[in-house]
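Run log // design_07
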């Protein structure tokens, strides 16, 4: 049987090892050779501490190059990167020095820029960098924090050590325990009354929230004031830091409370007095005691909150509108103007107050006596203004209204369509036995938020040649100032 000597086995093992080593060297050399075919990019860091030559250059954890050289330029570290030939970086790319773990070796991490932007050419510089984390500075700061914590714990140990300090703390905790127990008894015994008060408060805050939502500009001003207040609070926190330092030194009332037993005794007496007050409240003595224990007082408070709630609800529902409407009468070559105030206390009820400027003026009648014969003549006062005074009620898309229309009794019907953007109107007024009534039909369309277009036929059954096609525009907007002025006026009951 064929056998291999020990010397042959050793030689064969060495030969295999040399073959493997040569293959690995070839692969590494091949990779390095491929990088040598690439191009170089420069990047400047404030510090390149811990970064070695030939360190890895990565994008998203994938190696794309190596550190080719590190040199000093203008007091900063100039790092030259050799990138693979197929790797392209945009000009707004970012470079940073990272570490594998806390104590691992450092490498250069690249963050590609905007996709589709211009790319960096060979020898160009990456302009944007991230400041590397200084581990030594971080460890130094942690050490300083540990020293501060050690000083605080030492101060607490000196303050709380000893029989006097222990007794003072026990006394304070016992009084606080008694105080919370009495307060809990008061709340449990008056749970129903408190629930009622909280429900009224919840409704009030809900209505106030609706008002705030409709006053965004004022809320923005409040937010700006809060920002200013936060800056003042920062100053206050600085002052509190100084105060805590004084307390630690035994200065001031709180410092004496911790250092001086006499001050702790005074605090115990104060807590005992508070306990006595809570007992009186629980017995129903004093204003707060009546509020907690007397159902009549709680009822009056609830009625007051309910009244405020009703007032806020009324103010929110109450709406006022101002409008101007101009109509041009084509067949008469005259213009007619309307100025109205619409007061809407509820969603489906409203009142209209207004004045009308009619080119014909106001119709009047005058009696003339000639030879004992009385003659009645109708005349037009062109300087006289007409007025509107109407009340209306809405039923879904239909509105019925009545009252004085252009200084005479009459009625009107409106029908809304297209989510209230289009309105059809019909009015009848100025009823008289000697002439036909004044009938008017038209429509109104909302063109923009406050601008409307109007058109129609005025006095279309007139027997005195007053009929005319008309067209015009209308401006209408809601006035909150007038609303709150009207809702704040006391109404006799």
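design_07 sequence
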């Amino acid at each position: 049987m064929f056998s291999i000597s020990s010397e042959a086995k050793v030689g064969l093992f060495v030969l295999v090892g040399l073959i493997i080593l040569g293959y690995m060297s070839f692969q590494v050399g091949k990779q390095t050779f491929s990088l040598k075919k690439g191009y170089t990019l420069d990047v400047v860091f404030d510090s390149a501490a811990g970064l070695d030559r030939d360190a890895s250059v990565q994008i998203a954890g994938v190696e794309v190059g190596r550190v080719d050289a590190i040199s000093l330029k203008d007091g900063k570290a100039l790092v030259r990167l050799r990138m693979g030939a197929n790797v392209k970086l945009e000009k707004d790319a970012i470079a940073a020095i990272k570490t594998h773990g806390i104590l691992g070796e450092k490498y250069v991490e690249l963050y590609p820029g905007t996709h589709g932007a211009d790319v960096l050419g060979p020898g160009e510089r990456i302009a944007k960098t991230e400041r590397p984390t200084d581990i030594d500075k971080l460890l130094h700061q942690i050490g300083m924090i540990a020293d501060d914590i050690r000083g605080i714990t030492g101060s607490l140990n000196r303050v709380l050590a000893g029989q006097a300090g222990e007794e003072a703390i026990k006394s304070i905790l016992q009084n606080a325990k008694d105080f919370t127990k009495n307060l809990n008894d008061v709340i449990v015994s008056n749970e129903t009354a408190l629930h009622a008060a909280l429900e009224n408060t919840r409704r009030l805050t809900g209505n106030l929230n609706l008002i705030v939502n409709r006053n965004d500009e004022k809320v923005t001003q409040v937010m700006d004031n809060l920002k200013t207040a936060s800056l003042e609070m920062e100053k206050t926190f600085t002052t509190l830091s100084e105060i805590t330092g004084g307390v630690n030194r035994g200065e001031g009332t709180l410092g004496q409370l911790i250092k001086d037993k006499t001050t702790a005794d005074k605090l115990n007496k104060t807590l005992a007095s508070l306990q006595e007050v809570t007992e009186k409240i629980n017995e129903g003595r004093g204003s707060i005691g009546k509020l907690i224990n007397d159902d009549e007082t709680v009822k009056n408070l609830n009625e007051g909150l309910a009244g405020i709630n009703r007032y806020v609800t009324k103010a929110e529902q109450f709406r006022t509108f101002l409008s101007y409407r101009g109509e041009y009468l084509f067949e008469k070559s005259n213009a007619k103007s309307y100025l109205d105030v619409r007061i809407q206390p509820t969603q489906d009820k409203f009142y209209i107050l207004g004045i009308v400027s009619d080119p014909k003026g106001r119709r009047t009648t005058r009696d003339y006596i000639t030879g004992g014969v009385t003659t009645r003549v109708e005349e037009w006062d062109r300087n006289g203004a007409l007025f509107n005074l109407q009340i209306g009620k809405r039923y879904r898309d239909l509105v019925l209204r009545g009252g004085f229309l252009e200084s005479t009794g009459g009625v009107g019907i409106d029908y809304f369509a297209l989510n209230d953007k289009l309105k059809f109107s019909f009015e009848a007024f100025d009823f008289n036995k000697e002439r036909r009534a004044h009938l008017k039909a038209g429509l109104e369309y909302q063109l923009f938020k406050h601008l409307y277009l109007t058109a129609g036929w005025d006095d279309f059954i007139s027997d005195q040649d007053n009929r005319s096609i008309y067209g015009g525009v209308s401006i209408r907007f809601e006035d909150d100032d007038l609303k709150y002025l009207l809702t704040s006026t006391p109404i006799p009951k």
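The first helix runs from residue 6 to 36.
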